[in-house]
C-alpha cells in the first residue's frame, strides 16, 4: 500500500528530531539492527510484531519509534548503506588492500540481501524521496573506488581494473534468483571475481 509523502515526512520529523533517553536510544538501535536481519531473511512481508519480539520490546515501542513500515525501512536502508561505506576505511586500515577489497565485497552481498528484502517499500520510498538512492549509490560507488584504486596502486590486483566494472559485476548479484542458497552462491561469485582481479597482478595494465 502506498504511503503519502506527507505521512513519511511527518513520522520522520516526529521520530528523528526528538531527543531520546539512553534506554530509548538503545531500543531504537536494537530495533533497526533486528529489522535489517529479519528483512534480509524474510523480505518486506516480515512481521513487525516478530521484529519487536526479537528485539525484546513490545510492538507499541516499535510504533513509537517507527509509526509506519516505510519509515522503519528507510532507517534500515540508510543504516546498512552507511555501515557499508564506513567499512571501506575500516577494512583498509586493518588489511592488505586486496584483502580489504574482498572483505568489503562480501559485506556488499549482505547489503544487497537486505536491499532485496526491502524492495517493495524501497520502490514506494523512491516516489517520495528520490535523493535517498542517488546519494547512497554515489557514496557506495566512491567507497568501492577507493578500495579498488588502492589495490591497483600497490599491485595486489590487476592494473587494468576499473572500479565501475567491478561495481557492475557486483550489482548483477542483485538480479540473481532468490533461492535459499543465494547468499552462499553470491559469496562464491565474489571469490571468483577476486581470483580474476588478482590474476596477472603486477603485470597487467
Automatic annotation (TrEMBL):
InterPro entries for this protein: Homeodomain-like_sf (IPR009057), HTH-type_TetR-like_transc_reg (IPR050109), HTH_TetR (IPR001647), Tet_transcr_reg_TetR-rel_C_sf (IPR036271), TetR_SbtR-like_C (IPR049445)
UniProt xrefs under Gene3D superfamilies: Tetracycline Repressor, domain 2
GO molecular function annotation: DNA-binding transcription factor activity; transcription cis-regulatory region binding
Endpoints of the signal sequence: none
Keyword vocabulary terms for this entry: DNA-binding, Transcription, Transcription regulation
Protein name: TetR family transcriptional regulator
Amino acid at each position: 500500500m502506498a504511503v503519502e509523502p506527507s505521512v513519511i515526512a511527518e513520522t520522520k520529523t516526529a521520530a528523528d528530531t526528538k531527543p531520546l533517553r539512553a534506554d530509548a536510544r538503545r531500543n531504537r538501535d536494537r530495533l533497526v539492527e533486528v529489522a535489517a536481519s529479519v528483512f534480509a531473511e524474510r523480505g518486506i512481508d516480515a512481521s513487525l510484531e516478530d521484529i519487536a519480539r526479537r528485539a525484546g520490546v513490545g510492538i507499541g515501542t516499535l510504533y513509537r519509534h517507527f509509526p509506519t513500515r516505510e519509515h522503519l525501512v528507510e532507517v534500515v536502508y540508510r543504516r546498512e548503506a552507511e555501515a557499508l561505506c564506513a567499512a571501506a576505511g575500516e577494512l583498509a586500515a586493518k588489511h592488505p588492500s586486496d584483502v580489504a577489497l574482498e572483505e568489503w565485497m562480501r559485506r556488499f552481498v549482505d547489503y544487497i540481501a537486505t536491499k532485496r528484502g526491502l524492495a517493495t517499500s524501497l520502490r514506494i520510498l523512491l516516489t517520495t524521496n528520490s535523493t535517498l538512492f542517488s546519494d547512497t549509490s554515489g557514496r557506495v560507488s566512491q567507497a568501492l573506488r577507493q578500495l579498488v584504486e588502492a589495490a591497483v596502486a600497490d599491485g595486489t590486483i590487476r592494473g587494468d581494473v576499473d572500479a565501475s566494472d567491478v561495481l557492475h559485476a557486483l550489482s548483477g548479484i542483485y538480479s540473481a534468483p532468490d533461492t535459499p542458497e543465494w547468499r552462499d552462491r553470491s559469496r562464491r561469485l565474489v571469490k571468483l571475481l577476486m581470483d580474476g582481479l588478482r590474476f596477472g597482478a603486477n603485470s597487467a595494465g
